[in-house]
């Protein structure tokens, strides 16, 4: 396992506690596009989330805005949880949604609001 992969696993575990078991993790194989999770661990969690310059809280704010704009519903489910882990309150997450209406439009922000409501109620 590379240092980047180890860093990615560590950050992923910190951002989404309990999702991955401790120790070595066997990545999915034999499925269609089974390298996607490994790519995310390396490039997103191992390289981007470990950079200096922005706090994890700030990275969550940026990530939520981008994912709302992209209408990336599946990723938003994870990143609303990550935002809470990184210290954002539900009121602050709501402010991100309100702010995004001006830049991404009401349809994208409303869709994200529904996902946030469902996801945050579960946790």
TrEMBL record:
Source domain of life: Bacteria
Carboxymuconolactone decarboxylase-like domain boundaries: 45-118
Name of the protein in its database record: Carboxymuconolactone decarboxylase
Gene3D superfamilies on file: AhpD-like (1.20.1290.10)
An annotated Gene Ontology molecular function: peroxiredoxin activity
């Amino acid at each position: 396992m590379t240092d980047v992969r180890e860093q990615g696993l560590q950050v992923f575990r910190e951002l989404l506690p309990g999702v991955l078991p401790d120790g070595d993790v066997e990545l999915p194989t034999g499925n269609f596009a089974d390298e996607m999770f490994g790519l995310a661990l390396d490039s997103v969690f191992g390289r981007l989330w470990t950079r200096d310059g922005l706090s994890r809280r700030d990275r969550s704010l940026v990530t939520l805005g981008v994912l709302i704009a992209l209408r990336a519903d599946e990723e938003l489910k994870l990143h609303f949880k990550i935002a809470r882990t990184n210290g954002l309150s539900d009121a602050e997450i709501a402010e991100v949604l309100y702010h995004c209406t001006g830049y991404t439009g009401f349809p994208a922000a409303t869709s994200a609001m529904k996902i946030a409501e469902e996801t945050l109620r579960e946790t």
